[in-house]
Amino acid sequence: MNNKCPWCGSDKAQINLWLRDEFLTREDFHICECLTCGLLYTMPRPGKEKIGDYYKSKEYYSHQENKKGFIPRLYESVKKTNLRHKYNMATRGMDEGKLLDIGCGVGDFIHTAETHGWECKGVEPSEDARNIAKTRIKGQLLTSEDINQLPDHSFDIITMWHVLEHVDDLKWQVEQLQRLIKYDGRIIIAVPNYQSYDGRYYKELWAAYDVPRHLNHFSKQTISKIFKTKDLQLIKVDRLIWDAYYISYMSEQYKHHKFPLFRGAVRGLISNCKARKSGEWSSMVYVFELKKEENSKFDRF
Ligand SMILES: [Zn+2]
């Protein structure tokens, strides 16, 4: 078994947490902390052949559509608000251009960006999701391998909304971001934050660990350190406030508590209130740009 850190390749690691796949298989996993670069990563890693098995669930929301019932409807309504917020966050100060959404799922974000005039491409490993996306968006849809074919420095914006935590080959992925982004472009990365209040409160039952679908777990410090080694500079930090509620609700379900919706709402609210002071939100959005000596677009924010 390969026990090495997916970022730096070091085998010096300590186990921080023992946990289970609470969502689907109830198999055991653990989370290692690399003692060289600080990244937290899931072990054992299922590998390319087996990872698809862990996504086979009717409840896996990000690839599901037209669901019935109160929770799915609530989820859909929050998703719409979230999409608007994501779009504004990603494009602030930019009118139009070329956008690449990596891990585009069924094309929700691209659909929003296209309606505002952006020329989009999407990358999505799941064939089922790609087939749904095809019916909704104009832009080209690519598999993960197709990324290699895209020309250097050809996108104004690259987005990865809750995708980088799923990526098996983290190093390759970050190198591709560095290669594809324009010199005055921006990369938007949304990932869960285990240093948030809800992350610390639920510990091994925190739903955003979501092992083994989530293979990498980031803090502000580690993601900024990792990207910096590829000349990608963190220029802004934002957040997605609704995720604290959803993750807390899921975590309450894993705890088998009664009234998970109510308890999750309370815990999510506490998490967001604490994050206003600490800056440690349940879901963080990081904005990176290629390091350069001059012409920084930093003042656009
Ligand atoms: Zn490492």
Comma- or semicolon-separated keywords:
single chain, 7-stranded mixed sheet, Rossmann fold, binds zinc ion, alpha/beta, 301 residues, 4-stranded antiparallel sheet
Low-confidence stretches: none
**Domain module count:** 1
- Separation of termini? 45 Å
Mean pLDDT: 91
Q: How would you describe the shape?
A: globular
The CATH architecture can be given as 3-Layer(aba) Sandwich
Question: For the record, what CATH class applies?
Answer: Alpha Beta
The proportion of residues in beta strands is: 15-25%
Backbone structural class: alpha/beta
* Ligand names: zinc ion
CATH superfamily assignment?
A: Vaccinia Virus protein VP39
Strand order of the largest sheet: 6-5-4-7-8-11-10
Largest sheet: 7 strands, mixed
Helix segment count? 9
Number of strands: 11
Radius of gyration: 18 Å
At CATH level 3, the topology is: Rossmann fold
Instruction: Spell out the helices and strands N to C.
Output: EEEHHEHEHEEHEHEHEHHE
What is the helical fraction, as a range of percent? Answer: 25-40%
Describe the structure.
The protein has a single domain (59-193, 219-300), classed as Vaccinia Virus protein VP39 (Rossmann fold). It has helices at 48-51, 70-91, 108-115, 127-134, 170-180, 197-202, 220-228, 242-254, 260-278; strands spanning 13-20, 28-34, 40-43, 98-102, 119-123, 140-142, 155-161, 181-192, 216-217, 232-239, 283-290. With 301 residues, the protein is α/β, with parallel strands linked by helices. The protein is globular, with a radius of gyration of 18 Å. The chain has a seven-stranded mixed β-sheet, sandwiched between helices. The chain has a four-stranded antiparallel β-sheet with strand order 1-2-3-9, with no helix packed on it. The model has no long low-confidence stretch (mean pLDDT 91). It is built from nine helices and eleven strands. The structure holds zinc ion. Zinc ion binds at residues 5, 7-8, 10, 34, 36-37, 39. Zinc ion (ZN) binds at residues 5, 7-8, 10, 34, 36-37, 39.
